[in-house]
Design a protein that fits this description.
Number of helices: 23
Largest sheet: 8 strands, mixed
Radius of gyration: 31 Å
Strand content: 15-25%
Shape: elongated
CATH class of one domain: Alpha Beta
CATH superfamily of one domain: Calcium-transporting ATPase, cytoplasmic domain N
Helix content: 40-55%
Length: about 675
């Protein structure tokens, strides 16, 4: 929506973006997408025309060329003419108009094949770009899937089910075990664990009780809680995330591509020069000669080589990047990736495995670590909590527990081999003599599980979401390229600081909500080109706000992938420096191609204007330049990137020493 005509965009309600038929284009096979199928069909006709030109009657080849030009011209000529008539200022003078005029000039001079080639190359690049942009719209539906369709509201006559969008501030919501929370609120009654990973990125559920805030889209654990809504159902933290993503994509869509930036000053100059050539020539000499010379000027200044310079490089580079696990959605994203000077990284699921593991234990005298883990795993065996999975992985041979019961938001109790066991948080079970050791583990970024046997605290277990084994190497490679690194995470400051120290991250911003992440990324991107790397729905606004958004493909949420410009089909972080180095090299090749294409125009223009070169010479030079540019662009397919070899997992309880890099913490 245009702010100039309609004011600020309204807050997005869930039903407002529930379905958009245009967003389904990217799911279609290309032959069913008219915007892509037409250029491809025209390209095949152009190739057929080239074959017929050398083997068959010239008239048939010309007819095939004309058909190809008509088919592909329908994809951009009408729009170029509409922009010329309706738009104001430089917006109406773009590459499309110059392509239209150049193709028309080539046809008038009898070079239909040249016109068809020019139109095909331009239209296929435009179609691929448009198809990539429409992928972003699908991400909005993935974001809004966080909000349940309905919510239960407590009223004097009982609980009533209403649409989530109809929830109003002050309503009391009843949230059962496993339910997704419909809007932001404050817990009124009950205790439970709440999975906030989709909102904050924190992999370990948090305990909530009366007075604690909860966010829309969070998933309730095993206890029933009631919540007083602090936001309307159509205007909460999740719908604001959607709005942030929309705004970021709109801002990106307004950025002119490199070809457009070159064309803005070039188009009016070429048109004025051709018109002046024809006008003065008619007044001063033979009208036929000067009109033909004006058309030669148009062909000489036509961006045939410029049209090829970027697409051939981008297609080559993007194709080779996909072979080592990097999917780049558009030429714009590839261009911008080569400019990156700061990389911001999400923690959970990106730097870390998103798989909490037992790191260490501390036990009271008279007990062993093995016994501690065995009894804790026995009690947690039936729980679906991520911490339970960590305990079970650490003690697979645990005994069987009986009479197990859960205290929502606190922990579990049960009997193991005749002993009464409690396993839970330090808010529920007193630490006693282990308080100091538990505090040390917490300072190292671990979540603490306390184990009590027969009324006595016997030990604590430290659980942490460990960094990916290649994370430190990837960060070091980025620093070697002169790229700054920043961590943005919704996790707590102690955990963020510990992970940053071990991986070598320079700057940390912890306890960040999605809107805060997006705002920090916007500020960074205003100062220098910034890439954001993430994998969760909570990362979507930041990914969309960055100069380049990069999604971790394996395990990444649909919203993150659709909001990003680049996706990794694997999870090896060493692909990040590889991809940036590849894009820098491709950008250098692209710049060289553009410089050559512009130089050809600069040289040919005055020679054609003065009549030194005729049409045949101009076309020949253009063709040679195009061959050189294509050959140079194909060099972008060569890459030093490699599909990183898998690294072995660290054994449970054994991790490498923490890195010695300095960390600046901003919570």
């Amino acid at each position: 929506m245009s702010r100039e005509c309609c004011g600020p965009d309204p807050v997005v309600a869930p039903e407002a973006v529930s379905y958009n038929p245009d967003a389904e284009r990217d799911r279609m096979p290309w032959w069913r997408d008219r915007a892509l199928a037409l250029p491809v069909g025209a390209g095949l006709l152009w190739l057929l025309g080239m074959i017929l030109e050398r083997t068959g009657p010239e008239v048939i080849a010309s007819a095939v060329y004309a058909l190809a030009l008509a088919v592909v011209g329908a994809t951009f000529v009408p729009e170029a003419l509409r922009r010329l008539i309706r738009r104001r200022g430089g917006d109406r003078l773009g590459v499309g108009l110059l392509m239209t005029i150049a193709a028309a000039g080539a046809v008038l001079l009898g070079h239909i094949g040249e016109a068809a080639a020019l139109a095909f190359l331009f239209s296929i690049a435009e179609a691929l770009e448009e198809r990539a942009m429409e992928r972003a719209r699908r991400g909005l539906r993935a974001l809004l899937s966080l909000i349940p369709d309905t919510a239960r509201i407590a009223r004097p006559d009982g609980a009533h089910t209403v649409r989530a969008a109809d929830v109003r501030r002050g309503d009391i919501l009843v949230v059962g075990a496993g339910d997704r929370i419909a809007t932001d609120g404050v817990t009124v009654t009950g205790r439970s664990w709440v999975d906030t990973s989709a909102i904050t990125g924190e992999s370990i559920p948090v305990e909530v009780g009366p007075g604690d805030e909860v966010a829309a889209g969070s998933v309730n654990g095993s206890g029933t809680i009631t919540i007083e809504a602090t936001a309307d159902g159509y205007d909460n933290s999740v719908t604001r995330i959607v709005h942030l993503v929309e705004q970021a994509h709109a801002a990106k869509g307004e950025r002119a591509r490199l070809a457009d930036r070159i064309a803005r000053p070039l188009v009016p100059l070429v048109l004025i020069a051709a018109a002046l050539t024809a006008g003065f020539g008619v007044l001063l000499g033979d009208p036929v000669i000067w009109i033909e010379r004006a058309l030669v000027v148009l062909v000489a200044a036509s961006p045939c080589a410029l049209a090829i310079a970027v697409p051939v490089t981008v297609i080559s580079a993007i194709g080779s990047a996909s072979r080592f696990g990097v999917a780049i959605t558009s030429g714009v994203a590839f261009e911008q990736l080569g400019t990156i000077r700061t990389v911001a990284v999400d923690k959970t699921g990106t730097l870390t495995r998103n798989d909490p593991r037992v790191v260490t234990t501390r036990v009271a005298p008279g007990h062993t670590a093995d016994d501690l883990l065995r009894v804790a795993a026995a009690v947690e065996a039936t729980s679906s909590h991520p911490l339970a999975r960590a305990l079970l992985a650490a003690a697979p041979g645990h005994p069987r527990a009986v009479d197990v019961s859960e205290v929502p938001g606190r922990g579990l109790t049960g009997s193991v081999e005749g002993r009464r066991v409690r396993v839970g948080s330090d808010r529920w079970i007193a630490l006693g003599e282990l308080a100091e050791e538990a505090a040390d583990l917490a300072d190292e970024g671990m979540t603490i599980i306390v184990v009590e046997i027969d009324g006595a605290t016997v030990g604590v277990v430290g659980v942490r979401d460990e960094p990916r084994p290649e994370a430190a190497e990837a960060i070091a490679a980025l620093h070697a390229q002169g790229i700054d690194t920043v961590m943005l995470t919704g996790d707590n400051a102690r955990t963020a600081r510990a992970i940053a120290a071990r991986t070598g991250i320079e700057t940390v911003h912890a306890e960040q909500l999605p809107a805060q992440k997006a705002e920090r990324i916007r500020r960074l991107a205003q100062r220098r080109p910034t890439a954001m790397i993430g994998d969760g729905i909570n990362d979507a606004p930041a990914l969309a706000s960055a100069t380049v958004g990069i999604a971790m493909g394996v395990g990444g949420s649909a919203a993150a992938i659709e909001s990003a410009d680049i996706a990794f089909t694997g999870s090896d972080l060493r692909l990040i420096p590889d991809a940036i180095a590849h894009a820098r090299r491709g950008r250098a090749i692209m710049t060289g191609n553009i410089a050559l294409a512009v130089a050809i125009i600069v040289v040919l223009f005055p020679l054609a204007l003065t009549g030194v070169l005729g049409l045949a010479a101009v076309v020949l030079i253009h063709e040679i330049a195009e061959i050189v540019i294509i050959g140079n662009g194909l060099r972008a397919a060569r890459t030093g990137g490699r599909r990183a070899a898998p690294l072995p997992d660290y054994p449970i309880g054994r991790v490498p020493e923490a890195g010695k890099g300095q960390t600046r913490l901003s919570a």
